[in-house]
Amino acid sequence: MDMRAAPVASAGGISRPDARAPADPRAVLTSIGVAVYDWNLASDAIEWAANGADVLGLPSLAGLADGASYANLVEPGSGTTRAEAIGGSTARDEGSGVPYAARYAIQPEPGRIVTVEDTGRWYAGADGRPASAHGLLRVVSGAGVSPAGEEGPGQRERVAFLRKLASEVAESGRSKRPVTIFVLSIADLAELNDSFGFEGGDAVIAAVLSRLSGVMRRRDSFTRYSGNRFALALRGCGPDQARIAADRLEAALATAPVDTGRGSVGPRLLIGAASAPDHALDAAGLLRRAEQSLAIAKRRSGPSLVVYDPQVFRSTERRPREDGALDVIELLNARRVVFARQPVVDASTRTDAFGEALMRVSGEDGRVTSAGDVVPAIERAGLVPLVDMRMLELVVNHLAAHPGERLSINLSPLTLDAPDWLATLASYVGQRADIAPRLIIEITETVAIRDPEGARRKMDAMKALGVAIAIDDFGAGHTSFKHLRNFPVDMVKIDGAFVQNLSRNPDDGFFVRTLIDLAHHLGLSTVAEWVEDEETARQLASWGVDYLQGDHCGVPLIPDPPLLARTA
């Protein structure tokens, strides 16, 4: 096997002459305006990298710990949001995640609007729906406060609309006079443009505007603030009356087909609604919630009206099962936890160098699925160490049966802190002298940096057993140069969120080259994750990366036949 020699390690870390230190990854990441995040869609919790507040220009991210709070920053109509890009995806997660990309504007603080690019990869649960996402948020260069009188397209109309409603929305709780905002969009307008031309699409928009104006009450306010976004403020209308108002608007559109010059069409509205004081007490927040509701109306087939529901945006539709712990124990005892092996190849020769063992679950029907829907139950039940140790057993059994292979496994923070982890690892790798050198333990940046001294002691103990150690998701901005230099690691796996954008963003290329140089400065091997095309693979190889991992280099496959661990 064409494996490169691991660097010599000591109790203090990598033994290497101390040349001038390269740039600190965290400082570089902040300088290019990038923050990495993890979003658990089941709980709606968002975990930001350490530099997230600096990138967004905020004193802290305490108020942005969940998706619903972050969604409140999004400027309505500013573009496809993260939630829309993930929720609207029709792709299937085959076990390696599904890429997503979004670009929109947020308002981190009153009066300060910035445009962001939001890219990453979402992972499905057992039901095939998105369960988690790992990505990066990039503040686009030059974004900031729009000077007075220089608003972008639709911005002036939106600002005027919100100013007109500001006092009424703020007073709605005290005055008991509700205000409902409708955000309306013509369904399938892009398809109409394709079928009837842009002139036909314009004819449909003009007809919609005319017919809606004909049924509006004198006290209602209406504006068009983007190409296919209209906002309607209904004074004295609460959530219970929204359906009646929506029916009135839909009836106006249904009076007759619209003649486009190339055929007739019956336009249909999609409506997102939110009401004050129930859903917000500021006009901008109310408009955002109506916009979020419209996004759901676009994704769903069914009623054209969606009224804002806080429970939906907090993902409580996916409530944890009370018997989650029992289910996990049953999975383990029934030997339904298996692993898929994804190859990691040499960047220069593309030969198989080693593999990563990824947890999978075998269903009662024998069909193997990703573990996305099981992991939350495992975490809630506090059984992560038990599952990690079962994965260790599976991998050790596989390595014993395949002397020519090398595998890596992921280690969770709870398992690293478990009092019996080191003893368990020693019992497995001590039985066969050839196992330990072929086993790589992957630890994420967040685990390593949470307690640097404690993490280093545990890494030293694992290294003494003969295994190799890798820092996973490297580049998220947690690990400083000083910490990395003192950790006894052999390899870093560069966060795929940066690799995914190499062909589109030069800043990511600069940052990935910085990470490669830093790793080589310390004598560490490098693995680039999420390699999905030949152009990216060649670019990374030219920069000196050692190994490549991603579907382009090989998809995760269940060993045939899968080796199952003994029952507990």
Structural notes for this entry:
The chain is elongated. The protein is 36% helix and 24% strand. The protein is of the alpha/beta class and 568 residues long. It is built from 20 helices and 23 strands.
Describe this structure in a few short sentences.
The protein is an alpha/beta fold and 568 residues long. It has 20 helices and 23 strands.
* Rg result: 27 Å
What proportion of the residues is helical, as a percent range?
Answer: 25-40%
The backbone outline, from C-alpha atoms, is elongated
Percent strand equals 15-25%
Mind telling me the CATH superfamily name of the largest domain? EAL domain
Average pLDDT over all residues = 82
Give the distance, in angstroms, between the N- and C-terminal Cα atoms.
34 Å
Largest sheet: 8 strands, mixed, barrel
Strand count = 23
What structural category characterises the helix and strand content? alpha/beta
Numbering strands along the chain, what is their spatial order in the largest sheet? Answer: 15-16-18-19-20-21-22-23
Count the helices. How many?
20
The CATH architecture term of the largest domain is Alpha-Beta Barrel
> According to CATH, what is the class of the largest domain?
Alpha Beta
Question: What is the third-level CATH name, the topology of the largest domain?
Answer: TIM Barrel
* Count of domain modules: 3
Contiguous runs where pLDDT drops below 50 for at least 5 residues: 1-19, 142-153, 315-326, 563-568
